[in-house]
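Hi R.,

Quick one: here's the Probable dual-specificity RNA methyltransferase RlmN sequence you asked about.
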Amino acid sequence: MAKIDLLSLTSEELIKFTQDLGQPKFRGQQIFQWIHKGVKSFEDMTNLSKDLRESLKEKAYITDIKIEEKFVSKIDGTTKYLFLLEDHNIIEGVVMKYKHGLTACISSQVGCSMGCSFCASTKGGLVRNLMAGEILDQIQTMQLDIGERISNIVLMGSGEPLHNFKEVISFLKIVNDEKGLNIGNRHITLSTCGLVPEIKKLADLQIPINLAISLHAPTDELRTNLMPIGNKYSIEELIDSCRYYLSKNNRRITFEYSLIKGVNDMESHAKQLSLLLKGLLCHVNLIPVNLVDEGNFEKSKNEAVKKFADILMKSGIEATVRREMGSDINAACGQLRNRHVDKA
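And here's the predicted structure, written out as tokens:
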């Protein structure tokens, strides 16, 4: 029988696991607290009996990812990590410093199958899903390395979170647990390229996290050219799923829009986007596109970005331009992993 990763279990699942070993409920609670303090060895769980520790060694393990490489921006202190998983796959994580605290951008998959043309994470396709414990351990590892508490999480690293629905939902429950890292749902943002059925499933769970939609175009024709997911779900279907999410959670949705020179950054696109989002409780995050080695896109000029934002705001759509973080260390998701894999 395969060993179970205890870091991937919710507190309820861990309590059941220990009860199945013939242990009382409080033992599961003790183990949960140990592993969420960052303890990786059962030997260090000093309030457990020797027999229980031996039994845990036989039947379970605790995910323990390692820092393969680390880069710190000299511009703004952004820290980029390449993490080595136990199967030798590589994922990325980023810690960004803001006035309100530290925000961690974490990965949910090794690679990605969504194929968005301007994203480095999709090169090479999807290798595998991450387990909940591997998603969580990115945060634990970064906190231990930096020596400060991470207060905000964005699931915007490598992978499509809703394509790994089960493990991501488990992660959300675990990271929110008051006996664990205790990071509030309102401090967590999940970004999706638009898996319509999964957005509705997430809405039904009524977990009050922040939802961000990677939109990047106001029409189906343009979006399909940039994002293959547009072939499966139309913008109308996507916006309908957003309305459903709002009906269940009433949490403002963020629409991410990467501005690409001469492709989707014209005044006509801004006006189309304004009409599309009219009446929605939403915010548009305008992102000057990151340069991808394999792509031929250029960033929009500053004047075009400002004009685009002005048109949205004059139409009653709140819009901001994302501040570029860690530009000197290739902090955009996928860039460093690709270079590392290419060298291997």
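The radius of gyration is 21 Å.

Cheers,
M.
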